[in-house]
Specification:
The chain starts with a helix and ends with a helix. 67% of the residues lie in helices and 0% in strands. It is built from six helices and no strands. Helix 3 (36-50) packs across helix 4.
């Protein structure tokens, strides 16, 4: 699976505004007429991070890179916007299940 946040040059946690800004910046830097492959990657990353279902999958992928859920939550703790969390509860619970399955 592709780490969509890295494609856009972002690091978690990521808000929708961050995704949009990074997307627009990269579209200007890599116009489709000159860089069709790179612009396709950027577009796919943008679509994945702005679609709620795909975003949860992306968040789970990012969280699964950590050995333990508490470590991932510590990484997110300082930057989470309480009104619009970067990581949904569903993705956190799924990541916790993944961590439990690894043991």
């Amino acid at each position: 699976m592709i780490n969509h946040m890295l494609v856009l040059g972002l690091s978690p946690p990521v808000r929708r505004e961050d995704v949009r800004s990074a997307y627009l910046r990269l579209v200007r830097a890599f116009p489709p007429s000159k860089h069709p492959e790179r612009s396709a990657q950027v577009r796919a990353a943008y679509e994945a991070l702005t679609d709620d279902r795909k975003r949860v999958e992306s968040d789970i992928f990012w969280l699964s890179e950590y050995n333990d859920v508490s470590e991932a939550l510590d990484a997110l703790e300082l930057a989470i916007d309480v009104s619009k969390p970067a990581v949904s509860l569903k993705s956190l619970l799924a990541a916790e299940k993944l961590a439990g399955d690894r043991e």
